[in-house]
Amino acid sequence: MIQIAALTLTFFLPLATAILVKSFSTNITERGRETPLLFGPKGDRFDLTINSLFFRGDHSSQLSMADFQLLSKEDRGTMVPLNLGFTARKFPVIGTSPDYFTARNITPKKGTVPLKLGEAVLGSKCAEKLNIQINEHILTDQVNLYDLSASYPLKLKIVGILNQTKSADDNAIFTSIGTAWVISGLGHGHEPINESTANDKLLGKTEKQITANASVEQFIEINEKNINEFHFHSDPTQLPVTSILAFPKSKKDGTILKAKYLQHEQIQPLEPDSVIKELLDIVIRLKRLFDASYTITALAAVFFLTAVILLSLQTRKRESKALFLMGCSRGTICMIFSAEIIILCLFSILLALLGAFALTFMGSDILQLLR
After folding, report:
1. Can you state the percent helix, strand and coil of the chain, rounding each to 5?
2. Residue 370's pLDDT band (cuts 50, 70, 90)
3. Which residues pair with 40 in a beta bridge?
4. 173-176 and 91-96: which strand pairing?
5. Residue 6, class by beta-carbon neighbours within 10 Å (0-12 exposed, 13-18 middle, 19+ buried)?
6. How far is it, in rounded angstroms, from Cα 267 to Cα 361?
7. Which tops the pLDDT comparison, 360 or 200?
8. Residue 269 and residue 255: Cα distance in Å, rounded?
9. 15: enclosing H helix or E strand
10. Axis crossing angle, helix 272-315 with helix 330-370, rounded to the nearest 10
11. Is the pLDDT reported for residue 194 higher than 70?
């Protein structure tokens, strides 16, 4: 059994690495090809690409809605804003517009996409893992548990579940970009402040202005009754977006858009496909390193097997002598032992191939677990 396990692992590890690398390459390459252009703040292009396409990585630098409006005025394609950095039960919450679903060709399996403040739609895997149905609610995670001044978690109403796409969209929660601003604390809703508000809830009161204190009730759920009480104190053009996905009308429009913003002071244009190819070069180099280590492992397994066989021959001297006395030639005895070794190797190869076959179908799921 030890010999079979050692040989099976020796044959399986290179196959598993090749399958996982191929599955990983296929997944991220397709995602890059589906996104012609990406605009984000100046900085690390790898972080920006991974964060915007797979909803992971650094998102400390941001653009503004003014930048989004600037790109939209070019009228060279569909611009889709993204606001990232929030989670609900550890799943990423993505603030975006309905154009995202059209551009990505994602349709709801049930319900609809978020159209109002406070609504959310779940990716297929996300809905399956959370076991949440339409019209139920999910609470966003608190950004900082120890920051008393931080905004309250927001209760999102689930209005739809998306069809499976076999991409990062399956493990995400999507909401409107306005809702994402409310989650971040840039927008909020509270009980109405007017002439009838109790004095113990006010900091000051003049003929022109009423200033409330912290005792005023903050809403953590957006519904039909209080949706009109939600508002933003910031200049609408200065509200943040993490990045902007661009889907040009044509290849020419895409080229013109990228060229125009190459020297921009704040906006960085990227072709995700090119950035991902750079990342894959690093992955392929790592694979070569693993392949070299597997060669060493294979040699070690061969030496181990040889030692086991030699020890086995020593312990089976009586068996060999009995076969010889029964009339078997030395050549026949050698063939018997060789056949045992060949059967051992073939069985190990078969197990390794079965494992690789199973991994072929489970590769994408395993990569999802590793994310």
Report:
1. 50, 20, 30
2. very low
3. 268
4. parallel
5. middle
6. 40
7. 360
8. 10
9. helix 2-33
10. 150
11. no
Whether 92 and 86 have beta carbons less than 8 Å apart is answered as yes
What span, in angstroms and rounded, lies between the C-alpha atoms of 339 and 346?
10
- CA of 74: how far to CAs of 40, 45, 183, 299, in Å? 16, 23, 30, 61
Strands 240-241 vs 187-189: parallel, antiparallel or unpaired: unpaired
Separation of alpha carbons 12 and 4, rounded Å: 12
Taking CA 302 as the corner, what is the angle to CA 293 and CA 315, rounded to the nearest 5 degrees?
150
Q: Are 62 and 160 in contact (CB under 8 A)?
A: no
User: Closest by alpha carbon to 301, among 1, 16, 15, 3?
Assistant: 3
Question: 45-54 and 2-33 are packed helices; what angle lies between their axes, rounded to 10 degrees?
Answer: 90
* Angle between helices 2-33 and 330-370 in degrees, nearest 10: 40
If you average pLDDT over residues 135-149, what whole number do you get? 72
25 exposure class (CB count in 10 Å sphere: 0-12, 13-18, 19+): middle
Tell me if residue 269 falls in helix, strand or coil. Answer: strand
Burial of 76: CB neighbours in 10 Å, binned 0-12, 13-18, 19+: buried
Top-ranked range on mean pLDDT: pick from 200-204, 245-249, 304-308 = 245-249
- pLDDT category at 149 given cuts 50, 70, 90 is very low
- Whole-angstrom Cα Rg for the chain: 30
State which amino acid sits at residue 264: H
Q: Produce one character per residue of 314-348: b if its CB has 16 or more CB atoms within 10 Å, e if not.
A: eeeeeebeebeeeeeeeeebeeebeeeeeebeeeb
Summarised one tens digit per residue, pLDDT across range 93-140 is 999 999 999 999 999 999 999 988 889 999 999 999 999 999 999 999
